[in-house]
Amino acid sequence: MNKKMLIGLSFGAGYGSQPGAWRMPWVNPTSFADFDIMVKQAQTAERGKLHFLFLPDGFGTLVDIESVPPMTSLDVMMTLAAVARETKHIGLLATGSTTFNEPYNLARQFKALDVMSHGRAGWNAITSSTNDAAANYGVTIPSSEERYGRAHEAILLIQALWGSWGRNAWIHDQASGKFANKDQILPINLQGKFVGARGPLYIPPSEQGQPIIVHAGGSPNAHQLGGRFADVVIGSAFTIEDARSQRQAFRDAAEGYGRNPDDIKFFAGLMTTITKDRRTALDRRILLTEKEIPQRVAYLQSMLRIPLSIEELGRPLSELQLSNARPSPYDPRSAHALKIAKEGWSLRDIIAHGVIDYHPVIVGSGIEAADHMQAWFEAEAADGFWISTDVYADGIDAFVDEVVPILQERGLFHKEYEGRTLRENLGIQDQYGIDPRIVSTQKY
Ligand SMILES: Cc1cc2nc3c(=O)[nH]c(=O)nc-3n(C[C@H](O)[C@H](O)[C@H](O)COP(=O)(O)O)c2cc1C
């Protein structure tokens, strides 16, 4: 196989994916507000030739601010602006809601980041879906129909704005005094049911023309939006079968809009705690998640459908418990949890395997992570992976030093960036303005 896998890194509030990350003795507890630290973490990811950083945004609530930091960075665009100045190759993907932003504002911010980073920006266009997020804008969440109707219009309009400054319009000729060719910088005059703009945008093309489009979501609406516009889909799947069917749904939708299914790259999530061996990794996870263990025991009961008690944390499940256990049909992680339980780990260790986390979790050596990624990639369950490391301070290094070289040796991951721009590095075709193939597909 010549095709190489793609790898991105989830980049949240500066600490890591585990709620206890900020308290680890080797972590600076003010990382959340420290851009020097975030820049250093980004440089580590770039040292590993990772394709992009992915910044989620806009969850709206402070779940447990007394003990758990927020999950997203102070401001995704400012964080990426800081990172752009101190890196050269890594892609910069930020989330921006189509429901709670005016398209013109999104268009200018992302295009400015794209110009500033010399063509490395991507926009994760999501609709926001909770009243928690909506409350910060003084409203309740609009219906799905309205959110996705607006999203389709917003992306079209933003791409039209991006293309409104002609590719060769910027002359900047000091001798003649001609700054730009006015004939090539034209209004767009688009007014839809939900959004509109006159244009033109005042920002010239970047080295990759314009930012790529990303989408994150799994609903049928997400398939349609992603299928129509996305170059990259950030997914969430617990099994190879599930990932394959999600990937296929996006590919089918892309075809329905006249695109080539290979134009859309599906990324499966993966969480990592990488150390020299499984035992060391489990102990690290226990340290990181100590506070959550009682509530996770309670939840594991419902996944395995047997009573469990925190008194039993240090013991493996009994033969009777194992023979009575039945994976819950309501939670796709249950079969895996039972498999781990049957390997004879203690109740505490079962939980430390991350069986209740929100992506598959590797708790162990670099080889275990590489094997997982290879199996999914070769089964065509994903074009790539987005990695959530447990603690950024040393977890990004662990991934870069322990997993990346194995994937490279196996010929599964590139050894150098292919080019300068994000499009070149991800193998995404050139696009400037709206994709002509999708203009006539007015399903919305
Ligand atoms: C992997 C993944 C990442 C997501 N990241 C974000 C995010 O950063 N911000 C956000 O508001 N929603 C995010 N979402 C939520 C989705 O955009 C979407 O709103 C959600 O899946 C609900 O679907 P619906 O809006 O179609 O009902 C994410 C979803 C997935 C699966």
TrEMBL record:
Which domain of life does the UniProt lineage start with?
Answer: Bacteria
Concerning Gene3D superfamilies, the annotation shows: Luciferase-like domain (3.20.20.30)
- Residue ranges occupied by any Luciferase-like domain in the UniProt entry: 33-291
GO MF term (any one): monooxygenase activity
Which residues, if any, are the signal sequence?
none
Q: Which UniProt keywords apply?
A: Flavoprotein, FMN, Monooxygenase, Oxidoreductase
The UniProt family comment states: Belongs to the NtaA/SnaA/DszA monooxygenase family.
Quote the NCBIfam families the UniProt record gives. Answer: FMN_nitrolo
Protein name, please? NtaA/DmoA family FMN-dependent monooxygenase
The top of its lineage is: Bacteria, Pseudomonadati, Bacteroidota, Flavobacteriia, Flavobacteriales
